[in-house]
Every structure is written in C-alpha cells, then in structure tokens.
Amino acid sequence: MQVKTIIEPFKIKSVEPIHMSTEAEREQYLKTAHFNPFLLKSEQVIIDMLTDSGTSAMSSEQWAAMMRGDESYAGAKSWERLYDAVFDLTSMQYVLPTHQGRAAERILYGHLGGKGKVFISNTHFDTTRANIEFSGAEAFDIPIDEGKNHTVFHPFKGNMNVIKLEELILKHGADNIGAVILTVTNNSGGGQPVSMQNAKDVAAICKKYKVLFVLDCCRIAENAYYIKHREAEYKNHSYKKIAQEMFALADAAVMSAKKDALVNMGGFLTLRNEQLAEACTNLLIITEGFATYGGLSGRDMEALAVGLVEVFDDAYLNYRIKSTEYLGEKIREKGVPVMYPIGGHAVYIDAASMYAHIPLHEYPGQAMVCELYRLGGIRCVEVGSVMFGKYDADGKLIPANMELVRLAIPRRVYTQSHIDYVIEVFDEMMKTRNTVKGYKITKEAKLLRHFTAHFEKLQ
Ligand SMILES: *Cc1c(COP(=O)(O)O)cnc(C)c1O
Questions:
Q1: Which residues pair with 406 in a beta bridge?
Q2: Is residue 219 classed as helix, strand or coil in its secondary structure?
Q3: Which end of the chain lies in a sparser environment, N or C, as judged by fewer CB atoms within 10 Å?
Q4: Hey, which residues does 118 pair with through a beta bridge?
Q5: Positions in the chain whose pLDDT score sits under 50
Q6: Where does a domain end: 310, 340, 360?
Q7: Domain assignment of residue 319, yes or no
Q8: Could you tell me which residues are beta bridge partners of residue 456?
Q9: From atom 1 of ligand 1, which residue's Cα is the shortest distance away?
C-alpha cells in the first residue's frame, strides 16, 4: 500500500519546551519590545519563524560526530572529514572553512571586488550585496521577468535573465566583471528555484567571456528537489547527483552552512583556481583562522560534514519541501495573499494587499508581524519598507518595492501540529484584518534599522 500522508522522517530524542503564553501576556511583551519582534526574548515566542538560518535541529549522528571533533590547530582529522564531504559534492579542489557564509563572501568578493568592478546575480542576498558594495564594486540583480510576478506559476522563478547577463558583460567589459553569482535557491526572490538549464546557460556565457562563475549554494539541496520534480531530464537522478552536476558547472562556490548543511554555525568557500585559492587562503588566515579550520572548531566541521550528507536524503527533502508548501497552500486557501508558487524555505505574504487600508508609510508588514505575534505567539519578519525603505530629502518615506512578511521554517524543528497551529491563527488574522492599525517608527538606526527600531501603534 502507498500511504499518502507525509510524516516527519525522524523521531524526537531531545526536546526543548515551548513556553505557552496568553494573548494578554503577549500584548505586554510586544509593548515592552516596542512592537519589534526582533526585540522579543525567544522564550516569549511560541512558534519562531524569524529565520531558517542556523535554526536547524541536528541529528543524533551529528551530535555523535561532534564528540569525535579533533581540535588540533593544524591538519585535524575533522578537517579531512569536512574536506572529503565538500570535495565529494563540489569537485572543487580548494576548500576554505569559514565561520559563516558572509565570511566566505567577504574573502572572495573583497578580493575580486574594488572600484570599477561589477558583479551580476539572479538576486544578490543582502550580505552578498553588502560585501560587494563595501569593496567599492557594483552589484546588479537580473532575475527573469516571471520572477517579479508573484501570482503566476513558473517552475523556476529563481532563474537568471541570460540575455541581460550577456548584455551587461558586453556593456561593462568582461575584464571588469568581478564574478557572476547564481544564488540557489534565490533567497531574496522568495526561495524560488533555479533550473539546471539556466545554470548551464549561465556557465556557457561565463566560459565564453572568461568570467568567474560562483554558485551561492546555501540551499542547493532544496534547489535539487525542484530540478528533480520539475525538469523532466532529471527525474531519475538522485538529489545529490543533481547538486554535483550543478557544482561541476561552476568555478567557485560560497556556502552558508546554517541553511542546507543543517548546522547552527558554519560556512565555506570552494575554488578550482590555484592562484585565486592562494590569495583567498591568505585572507582566510588573517581574519578567520589557519587553512585547516578557518572559522570553525573541529566539532563544527564534523557536524557540517554529516549535515551535508543528511540533507540529500530523499525522505528529508520530500518532508522539507512538502511541509513548507503545506503551510503556504493552506493559508492561500483561506484567501491570504501569498507569493506563488511557494518556495523551499519560507512562505511570503503580501502585507500591502492583506491590509490594503494601511498606507505604506504606516508599515502594513510591521502591523502583520505584530498581529501574528499577538494572536498566536508566532514570530516572523517584515521584508518591506521597515527593512528596505528610505527617506527623501523632505523626510518622506520612499517605500520598498514590496511589503512582504516572511514565515521562514527552521529545518527539522517543528511538526505538522505546530504548522496546523500557525494555519489556524490565520483564520483570526483574516477575520480581523480590517480592524488592524498601522505603526509609526519612534526610534531607528541609520543602517539596518529593522533590527533595532522602536514602533508605536497608531490609533
Ligand atoms: C544566509 C545567506 C548568506 C549569508 O550567510 P550567513 O551564514 O548568514 O553569513 C548568503 N547568501 C544567501 C543566499 C543566504 O541565504
């Protein structure tokens, strides 16, 4: 018999209690946190969907491997295990371990960047863009047009526009291109996947113009799921084989292991070119650590090596993608305006259309994250004008392109009943949507204000 119910493909060995709170308590917590969920204590949260980064539950095999951690300064056995796992996947000879993804980005893009250099991506993740711009270089995002429409289905909305890619290379001159970066899945674009065909096309153009092709691979396993199920040619390939094929197309890769390597901290940079690897290794040693541990302890490298294998497990990936889709589809049925199709690691909601009565300068996305917390103790993040808004010369808000709210799903952490709880909270969210009020900012930092801003509820 073929049982259709998809279950969590793991048993729970160690549990972390959730502190249940009442709506009245949460109203108080929210006030104390100045209506900014980043300022809540985690124990005040029932379901934490702030991010999928570094929030995975590790397996018993990962914890066991940590006990094997070899903390030798140089040439540790744990380093060999990490190297083998990364080489097996990427086929790239040079591997540089870093404490997280942005450290790998700073090393590579700091070295390749500088004034006059140009980087091109399907969409630069915010730390990627920050490291490129910090070096003095420029970063261009060229997603395909379908990627910008959030209501129609397209199997690979994360794809890069390869016509624009060639135009940009010709316009700026191949010598001035720092790198072409393909982010899989496209995080900032809603966790949408990139097809193998698109990766092949990007690789061919990079080869033609002798431009470095970098894979930002932090969700490579989730991306492989979509290739297997949406790109006919790959339906009989294993997820790992698909990932290996994609890596084979690239010259370099950066990974935040806090995503698909199922660890709480870690990352790496891999390269094929010897000279580039030497230059990057020098930078690694200056700011991260010696070449055989970089920014990681031996036990971290062990957990990472195991996580890179576990993430390609069929049952795991099936559960992972289906459970994200389950949340997205169920709230979509209730009329919640979600970005469509649902991506791999998060569900994005269009707060501007959910709360059409709240003007953008009163931050409908912030109103929504506060409501989700107040009604259900669910913590998530605004990805809209609080995060990306700017002011004009008269102090008037220049809103972001979209007012989104992101419900990110930590890996292997929540069960279906947790997700059903979130879905139920949306019944009340929909019922009360017209009574929700906007917010004003009462205190903010110049940079990355969303982390620390204070808000006041408007009457
Ligand atoms: C998280 C992330 C990064 C940065 O990694 P950190 O580990 O947070 O430093 C880079 N690129 C993408 C696509 C990411 O999702």
A1: 348, 381
A2: coil
A3: N
A4: 138, 177
A5: none
A6: 310
A7: yes
A8: 440
A9: 256
Contact 230, 156 (CB under 8 A): yes
Examine residue 292 and say whether the peptide bond preceding it is cis (omega within 30 degrees of 0). Answer: no
Separation of CA 194 from chain center:
14
Is residue 89 included in any domain, yes or no? yes
What token pair was written down for 407? 């419900």
Output the six-digit token pair for 51.
């991010």
Name residue, tokens 């995080």.
Answer: 187
Do 356 and 450 meet the contact criterion of CB atoms below 8 Å apart?
A: no
Q: Which helix (H) or strand (E) holds 425?
A: helix 416-431
**What's the first-to-final CA gap in the chain, in angstroms?**
58
| Residues 410/258, Cβ–Cβ less than 8 Å | no
Phi first, then psi: give them for residue 141, nearest 5 degrees.
-100, 125
d(CA 299, CA 385): 40
pLDDT of residue 446: 82
pLDDT of residue 380: 97
- In this predicted structure, what is the pLDDT of residue 185? 94
- The rounded distance, in Å, linking the Cα atoms of 55 and 42 is 12
For residue 333, how far is its CA from the centre of ligand 1 (angstroms)?
A: 31
Residue 150 has what pLDDT? 82
Residue nearest to atom 6 of ligand 1 (CA): 101
Encoding tokens for residue 229?
Answer: 């199920």
Q: What is the pLDDT of residue 152?
A: 87
How high is the pLDDT of residue 165?
A: 98
Q: Domain end: 277, 310, 343, which one?
A: 310
Q: Where are the alpha helices (DSSP H) in 209-253?
A: 220-230, 239-249
Ligand 1: centre distance to CA 263 (Å)? 13
Please tell me the predicted confidence (pLDDT) of residue 190.
Answer: 79
Domain assignment of residue 138, given as a range: 60-310
* Residue ID of nearest Cα to ligand 1 atom 11: 125
Residue located nearest, by CA, to atom 2 of ligand 1: 256
Q: Which atom of ligand 1 is nearest to the CA of 257?
A: 7
Together in a domain, 72 and 205: yes
